[in-house]
Amino acid sequence: VPELPEVETVRRGLNAFTTAQALQGGEVLLARTLARPVSAADFLAGITQSQIVTWQRRGKYLLARLQREDADAGWLGIHLRMTGQLLWLERAAPLHRHARVRLFFPEGRELRFVDTRTFGKLWWVPPGEPVEAVVTGLQGLGPEPFAPEFTPAYLSDRLQRTRRLLKTALLDQTIVAGIGNIYADEALFASGLRPTHPANTLQPSQVERLHGAIQQVLQTAIAKGGTTFSDFLNLLGVDGDYGDAAFAYGRTGEPCRVCGTPIERLRLGGRSSHFCPRCQV
Ligand SMILES: [Zn+2]
């Protein structure tokens, strides 16, 4: 499942390839991939002949600012969910059976949305409408991990107010946006805290360490272009190389890179958590 670093890697690719050229239309191969508008004709009419000014990321949402003849033309929104991928291809490239939406660009190029599990979504937000009114999942999102308001004091305050386990709290997108299973495990390892640690019993120094670890782990993963786990591919179909850098995630039974103790795994709320029983308290 793509998390913040993977979505950020995709965003950078989209900015490099898809901006400053007029969209020439497209094709919707699976109707339910469109969240709003639900009609493929309305969606395609909304984006055709508009240019992508820039791609932004909010949590795991990709949001493209659109312009048509220097006027605001709304937004294009994409959420990859579990298995969505965006590929920058020649329009003539063979159509994979999981291709869901095709967006046509000049010179025979295409941005193709491929999604095996079909949970991914696309939105077109008409000009003048607030993005959050259409892409409603944006409404409850907490701060970005690199935003100025994501401070140790903020994190401490939010963790104080929950009785949940630390791992569960980190996955809560209303506390901090963009963290999923992989980077929650990695941030907990880097801060020496167990996934099962009650969120509201952390000492200030532990919150400080956790806050720093979240930013450091995400920064490293972004620099490496995302992870090799979860079938992640960037726009050109290349996977990232964070997988080799993982300390805990996916390393069940392997020796901890710090102390040599085998990494353990436990199930929490239906997800696997990986931790070192010696390094994490
Ligand atoms: Zn260890």
What does this structure look like?
By secondary structure, this protein is α+β, with helices and mostly antiparallel strands. It has helices spanning 4-17, 40-47, 131-134, 152-160, 166-171, 181-191, 204-223, and strands at residues 26-28, 34-36, 51-58, 61-68, 71-79, 84-90, 99-105, 109-115, 121-125, 264-268, 271-275. A hairpin with a 2-residue loop joins strand 10 (264-268) and strand 11 (271-275). Helix 1 (4-17) packs parallel to helix 7 (204-223), helix 4 (152-160) crosses helix 7 and helix 6 (181-191) packs across helix 7 (204-223). Zinc ion is lined by residues 256, 258-259, 261, 276, 278-279.
The biggest sheet, with number of strands, parallel, antiparallel or mixed sense and barrel status, is: 5 strands, mixed
Mean pLDDT: 94
Number of strands: 11
The H/E string reads HEEHEEEEEEEHHHHHEE
Helix/strand-derived category reads alpha+beta
Helix content: 25-40%
Uncertain stretches of 5 or more adjacent residues: none
Bound small molecules, by name, code or SMILES, are:
zinc ion
Q: State the strand order across the main sheet.
A: 2-9-5-4-3
Radius of gyration: 20 Å
The span between the termini is 27 Å
